Amino acid sequence: MRVGVLALQGAFAAHADCLSSLGVSTTEIRTPQQLESVDALLMPGGESTTMSQLLEISGLFDPISDRISSGMPVFGTCAGMILLATEVLDGRPDQRSFGAIDISVRRNAFGRQVDSFEAEIDSTVGPFHGVFIRAPRIERMGDGVEVLGRFGAEPVLVRQKNVLAASFHPELAGDARLHDYFVSSMSTTRKS
Q1: Which has the closest alpha carbon to 88: 75, 61, 106?
Q2: How far is CA 26 from the centre of its chain?
Q3: Which of 64, 75, 142, 146 could form a disulfide with 164 if both were Cys (CB 3.0 to 4.6 A apart)?
């Protein structure tokens, strides 16, 4: 099984390192041709409006959208969550999202860069150290969305069918358990 890591912008190398530590083969995805070679996709943090533009310029937006609609497992973190959301509450008018998970998110809702913080999260894999950098907040969830992790009362890790999304940066925690959860759940997701 091969996992693609969207490598247009953001902390893609740290995600690839987490997956490699689990013995998972990874491919950096920058073109539609590279996307064809993977079974799942990880969408890192970064700047969501820039990533949206780069997805268009690279010709990746529509092929990724088609693959997600066809059931390809995808894990989006921070900006990746924003790109996967059904609704981006304060995005630019020209910013596109995949509408792959029925959530509404607000960009930078946990604060600006100077407000970045680290905190313990109660999650499906147990306590997890979350790194929040200009993190989005989930303000609405559809009925089919399952909460897998919370920071206090706030949902910060959610799943709907083949889509997993986190408000924080698990790749910066020095803990690959959420990447392992994603990889382990891929075979179950693809069957359902």
Answers
A1: 106
A2: 16
A3: 75
26 DSSP β-pair partners: 3
pLDDT at 117: 85
Q: Is the pLDDT of residue 11 over 70?
A: yes
Strand-pair partners of 130: 119
**Spatial distance between the Cα atoms of 24 and 21, rounded to a whole number of angstroms:** 7
Q: Which residue from 144, 186, 182, 188 is spatially nearest to 15, judged by alpha carbons?
A: 182
Two tokens at 48?
A: 């969501």
Q: Which residues of 93-105 are buried (b: 16+ CB within 10 A; e: fewer)?
A: eebbbbebbbbbb
The pLDDT of residue 192:
46
Q: What's the whole-model pTM score?
A: 0.93
Residue 124 CB partners (closer than 8 Å, separation 6+): 148, 149, 157, 181
User: Residue 188, by phi and psi: left (phi above 0), alpha (psi -120 to 50) or beta?
Assistant: alpha
Residue 75 belongs to what domain range?
A: 2-191
CATH (domain of 69)? 3.40.50.880
Q: How far apart are CA 131 and CA 69, in angstroms?
A: 29
d(CA 40, CA 71): 9
Asked whether the predicted pLDDT for residue 23 surpasses 60, the reply is yes
Residue showing tokens 């959610």: 158
Query: Catalytic residue positions?
Result: 78, 169, 171
On the CB side of 68, CA atoms within 13 Å amount to 24
